[in-house]
Amino acid sequence: MPEAESLENLVRLLENERRYTSTLLRAFPLAHGGFRPKPEMMTAAGQVHHIADGELWRVRGCRSDDWSLDVFGRGTSSSTDLAGAVTRLADVRKATMAYVHRLTFDELRSPPGDAAPFHDLTVGEILETAATHESHHRGQLVVYLRLLGIAPPALFTSAE
């Protein structure tokens, strides 16, 4: 487990990702929530919903061994309501962090259940994939900003 050797490291990893994404989203004009580079791509608001969906899916799967994909694609990929998407992401994050803070070290280092699509990963490692998933979609939002002619903010600074 490269990052999540402990609950403390997992919390730090998730909090850092959230800080970076929050900084980026504060720079994204709400009026551009419906922006997408091509018709078949997710809107900016859809990207944010997708980050929330991916996190919700991982936490639900780790908690209950329910890995159904029904959390994805509820019409949110073409959402134009960026403010609503940001609020939803904040709500999902609160629930995720409450779950993470309840984990024991043994739970963190254990596989989540038989139905998990991540066959050889522990709960901690699966939750790490939420961070990489978020980072990937944050990168797409950086590209969206650039396509809109907006310089993205510096994300990796010590001050927020």
Question: By helix and strand content, what is the structural category?
Answer: mainly alpha
Q: What is Rg?
A: 16 Å
Number of domains: 1
Can you tell me the CATH class? Answer: Mainly Alpha
Biggest sheet descriptor: none
The rounded distance between the terminal residues' Cα atoms is 28 Å
- The helix/strand order is HHHHH
What percent of residues are in strands?
Answer: under 5%
What is the average of the pLDDT values?
Answer: 89
Give the count of helical stretches: 5
Gross morphology: globular
Tell me the CATH topology: Four Helix Bundle (Hemerythrin (Met), subunit A)
Query: Percent helix among the residues?
Result: 55-70%
Q: Do you know the CATH architecture?
A: Up-down Bundle
Number of strands: 0
CATH homologous superfamily heading? dinb family like domain
Low-confidence stretches: none
